[in-house]
Write a structure and sequence with these properties.
Layout lengths: L31 H20 L2 H8 L7 H5 L12 E6 L2 E2 L3 E2 L6 H11 L3 E5 L10 H9 L4 E4 L5 H10 L3 E5 L5 H14 L2 E6 L2 H9 L4 E5 L11 H6 L8 E5 L5 H9 L4 E4 L1 H4 L4 H9 L2 E4 L5 H10 L3 E6 L8 H10 L5 E7 L3 H11 L3 E5 L4 H8 L4 E6 L4 H7 L3 E7 L1 E2 L2 E2 L11 H7 L5 E3 L8 H8 L3 E4 L15 H17 L1
Parallel strand pairs: 1-4, 1-10, 4-5, 5-6, 6-7, 7-8, 8-9, 9-10, 11-12, 11-20, 12-13, 13-14, 14-15, 15-16, 16-19
Antiparallel strand pairs: 2-3, 17-18
Length: 506
Amino acid sequence: MPVLVGLKNQSVMPSTASISANTPATPRGIPSVLQQILSERQTAVQQARQRVPEEEWKRQAQQRERRDFLQALRPVRPGRSPALPAVIAELKRASPSRGLLRQDFDVAALAAGYQAAGAAALSVLTEETHFQGRLEYLAEARAATRLPLLRKDFIFSSYQIWEAAAAGADAILLIAAMLDDATWAALLGTAREAGVAALCEVHDQEEMQRAIRLGADCIGVNNRDLHTFTVDTGCALGLAPLLPPTTLGVAESGLKTRADLHAITAAGLHAALIGETCMTAPVPARALTKLLGGFVKVCGLTTAADVEAVAAAGADAAGFVFADSPRAITPERARPLIAALPADVLRVGLFRGADTSTIIRIAAECGLDRVQLHGAYTTADGAAIASHLPVWRALAVPANAAEIRAWAPHAERFVLDAAVAGRTGGNGVSFDWDTVPALARAFPALRFIVAGGLNPSNVATAIARSGAFAVDAASGLENAPGGQPGKNAAAVLAFAHAAREAFQAL
């Protein structure tokens, strides 16, 4: 990460200084609070230019590692709407309408918790006076996670875009209400040059049409009226039909329940920006877990009846075992089963012993979304597969900290399981769930899935004791391994229901 130069910790005080002649014009009817903040930010940028020239930010930005913000928001299977939207979790200490939201504001810890809870991206407030943000928060969040970052600020100049990119942002916010078309178009061009995405925020049909006309590829609908600060979640739902098919749609503000998230995807929107709902909760990451409803995986599917049971239960992921196991399945048998799964269910292939080229080939042939690795794979194997699709790494508990650190750059999730005769997966044996909280504290940004011996009767206890946001079951849900049908539909349904209830109670 390039070193940021010339940053000050001081706050930018409100200013009533006049706007210079080269300041961009703003639309008529701009809300008074937005006009005030814009005036303050214009003064702050003028001061910042004296400390660090734009060319220096540009030089630093061109050296950075880039993360794909837009890709993080897209559905796993293009053209198919998932049951829940991708979540952009926000780091916001204060707001003009509610004042201080959170006294304890450890950016790294909050960011890591959001990643572990399932956020797809992070929004970081950097405006200092009204939101108590800081530019440095971007670097802190970036160091703590692998998620792409949105700089949420009041951006009107190319200087701010290059500054954002150098500071660690992968996307910037452009607010329609404070930009005329010429300025907006110029900023979109600078964003493309800088390699950052632009989330274009609109509030009504006229602004939506402006964004579409200017070629915005990601449009956010803010449910909050900037004149009155009232929130109407129907605003995003009402404007969603106007989005072009290839444009990513984001709902912003006032989203508080899982039902709100379901409504967003039903309307055709792809993502939700969640701020105050989580920021005002005692543990923001747990609040996000509650919104997302946790994560339920059912592994070892072998029949069409198994697929039907998983679909009926509303599981988040289905596992297919391409390895020596009573639940083993061939690619030929797996393909029609995988194709029959609902669009929002992740297809996971479990492998042990197969070489990387075979794994990559089977994943492509069967349309897998994820690869779960058991056994003696190296981090080089993981990196090779991860260049094609995300990897989940199975670990025997007690897990080795050095192994976790080595795999962390390559593994999207870690599956914690008991080992029998040195083998993880499908053993029907549980481990000590009380060991998981310490592991989560040691690696707060990692996503852990608790597996091994889970069934409808013990999953709630496993979740309560482990604090895990994700669970995985196989043998505890079946009539007989690989039988006809392999899974007991009633057990699968009861397992998913008990898990959801336990996640809500965390």
